[in-house]
Each structure stands twice: as structure tokens, then as C-alpha cells.
Amino acid sequence: MKCRVIGMWGGFPKENGPCSGYLIEQDEFKVLLDCGSGVLTNVQKYVDLNNINHVLLSHYHYDHFSDIGAYLFSRLVNTKIGNTDEALHVYGPDDEEMKRRVEEIEYCEFSTIDKNSELHIGPFRFTFMRNNHPIETYSIKIESGHKKIVYTSDTSYTSKLIEFAADADLLIAESSLYDGMDGSASGHMTSSEAGMLAYQSKAKKVILTHLPHYGELEELLASALNEGNHAIELARPGVLIEL
Ligand SMILES: [Zn+2]
């Protein structure tokens, strides 16, 4: 299993720096996890849009889903000009408007996820945990063979995450805030909370993501490392992690 970080900025993109998007691949099979601002442009550096037929959205904040409309339109055009005849499947929390927008486009299908969902897409098994965030949001676990990736999406710290993320080969942990800040109201983790999760879940490799646009990111990384898991790095656009 492979994970390509397409983008990792929280809230809004930088120039050439997209928001959340992670391409999960095994053999020739691909699933895009989240599709925030800038992801649609940048994912095409690595793969033709017509070769991704499954997009999973953790929640409907712009930095995680704003490019899905353009993705749907690309599928509409590409089916009309004969570049593909395969459906684009979009998965996300229950939302009538999202379902309507997806399914008004020929060749596009929408499926709802919730905390009890178990999705089998190609070689992958997806399960979910409800997050602490202002809107319905899920942490996502992806398993294939003996490998496991856990993506926290956006959430404040909760000890339930430790069990959900236990023994992940790759933990993609949000770290929106610096040590000493309080993420409980906004529904985000500090770097030390992300580090604590990395340590307690015994993750084999960790990337800190959903990074803030201010402060020194090296300090963010240092405070996460200080919690005891030394396999933590900052997410960077384009980086490929092979498990
Ligand atoms: Zn976000």
C-alpha cells in the first residue's frame, strides 16, 4: 500500500500548496482521501483524473471537499469526449445536497458513510470513527493485507483515537495547533496531542498534517517528537510513503 500526500495545509491553500488530499494506492488501484482546495490541480502531477474512480470525503469543510465539484465536472466532460466510461464514486457523511449534486451528473454515484460503515473498495477495507469537530467528521482507517493507514482528518484529541489508530503502519495525524493552544472548541489537535497519539497508538510512521499557516513548523514537529514517538515527520506535498 502507498500513500501520496497531495496537500496538507489547514483551512486554505498556499501558492502551490494544496489543502487536504491523500492518494491511497495499491497496484493500479487508487482511492483519493479528501479533495480540498488545490487538490484537483496537483493530483494530476501523479495520475490521470480518469484513473481515480473513488473519492472519500471525511467531512464537508472547504479545505477537505471544495474541489469535488470540479472533479465531478471533469468526469462529465471526460465521459462525453470518450476518455472514460467508468463511474466516479463519491463517499461522504449523509448530506442530501451533496448526494443530489453528485448524482445529477451522469456516471457519478454517492454513498453515505457513518461510524458503522465498512467499505470494501478494491483491495482496501475502510472503517470510521466519529470525530470531535463542529460538523459530522470521521477518522478513517484503511486496511489492506497486513498494512494499516489511519487518517484522523480534523478532530480535537480524544482517547478513543488511541484504540482506533492502534499499531498503524502510517498515522496521518492532524496537528493544526501549537503546543499550549486549546483545540477543544475548534475541534483540532495541538502538536503535543498529535505526538501523544502517535506514542500511545504505537504508530510505526507518522506524518503531521493539516498544518497551520503561522509560527515555526519545526517547533510544531519538535513538540510532537518530544512525546516519545521518534518516527514523526511533517507532511509535504508530493511525498510518497510506501508501506
Ligand atoms: Zn480542515
UniProtKB/TrEMBL annotation:
- Identify the Pfam families for this entry: Lactamase_B_2
Question: Keywords for this entry?
Answer: Zinc
Q: Which organism is it from?
A: Psychrobacillus faecigallinarum
Keyword presence, Cell cycle: no
PANTHER family hit by this protein: METALLO-HYDROLASE YHFI-RELATED, ZINC PHOSPHODIESTERASE ELAC PROTEIN 1
Domain (Metallo-beta-lactamase) ranges? 18-210
Instruction: Quote the protein name from its UniProt record.
Output: MBL fold metallo-hydrolase
